[in-house]
């Protein structure tokens, strides 16, 4: 009776977490590969222990990671453009921080709302405050995120909204349209209206007249006033704080924008901005446009129309009538039946499911799996750059790669846009350095957990498969790993380190590892 009572209690606890039985290591690892910078044995065990629902609740409550503020001027009194300390802190947080989900979502949002050091924003101190917008709003409301980014001085500089003044017919000048256009095209609506399932309608979301009127609605904002300076109608660039309105520079005419919505004449700059944000969040096409990109970054490049529709419906209504609730949207993405279908080892493999590990995700995943410690001078950010993705240096407003990029055959494969023979070779070189030498003097890995199970090929293979491949290593890859281990054992008289290195190299340079399924 006592045993039966214990079993009943255990099953009740699992049911309370939203599951009928304990998660398998495979299910926990797959989930973590979608929700974090990479699974580890400890994080896999944690998700197995408490379940996905409670893990999400715990992660939603964490807000711990930060990036260090930087000096405005360097030691020579010149503009400080050195981003290395910020990039180092980013990777330290990603590899060793506890708020894994918030960091992943923040990075994903920053890939949509792009600001880059390659064009315009050439002060390193601009980036920590900009990053905090995504950290602090990762699980908030998309409308709040839109407003915070719009008033960010970094975005104001990057897309020319700062000191964007009303047109003057006498001087034949007009408002700058850069931010107005990209706000609609890339950040909120896209070029064409969409059905809830992401399928396109033959209707443009906006035209040139709308761009012109949107630009007018967004006039009159300038940079924050630096400490000790006097506020001006057109402040010089200063990247702490929010931009503020200069009403004399704002266009107060009536403006017809997307959806045939008219912003009334006589409003302040703040009122016009609120009208724009209200109009955007009310557009049904925003839900599938944003939802599909979030799904692509976290789970799969080619979600089914049904998957997109389910997430879009949550974006439109979180169950309490609220639109744009990112916490609800992220939950819907990660717990959707399509995301979790592969958790069952007996499930039919879908060859179109999943996405490629982009360089930053590749580096963090390898480091977490290898129990890495990143010191203050770690150069992991440089390694990611060598493989095609330089943190905070997106080549354009379209980010590191386009969410619409397609591979041969027509499937969406955004990350493949920056994957080449050269970058694939560099990935292998970095794996080799991490295993057999050192990536740099400030980055170390710990292979001892792998060495301890190298007493037999099957033990090591299973352990590597659990950590890096969701316990789903193919038979062909297992054979390749076994061959490499045997060769290493023969050459080193059975040295566990040599066997672990050989096995890990084969796995981490394999095609199976490059794609998250």
At a glance:
The chain has 517 residues and is mostly helical. Helices cover 50% and strands 5% of the residues.
Please give the share of residues in helix.
40-55%
Silhouette? globular
Number of strands: 10
Describe the biggest sheet? 2 strands, antiparallel
N-end to C-end Cα span: 43 Å
Q: What oligomeric state do the depicted chains represent?
A: single chain
The structural domain count equals 3
Secondary-structure content class: mainly alpha
What fraction strand?
A: 5-15%
Q: How confident overall, as mean pLDDT?
A: 94
The value of Rg in angstroms is 25 Å
| DSSP helical segment count | 23
Strand order of the largest sheet: 1-2
Task: Outline the low-pLDDT stretches.
Answer: 1-20
Features:
two-stranded antiparallel sheet, globular, 517 residues, mainly alpha, two-stranded antiparallel ribbon
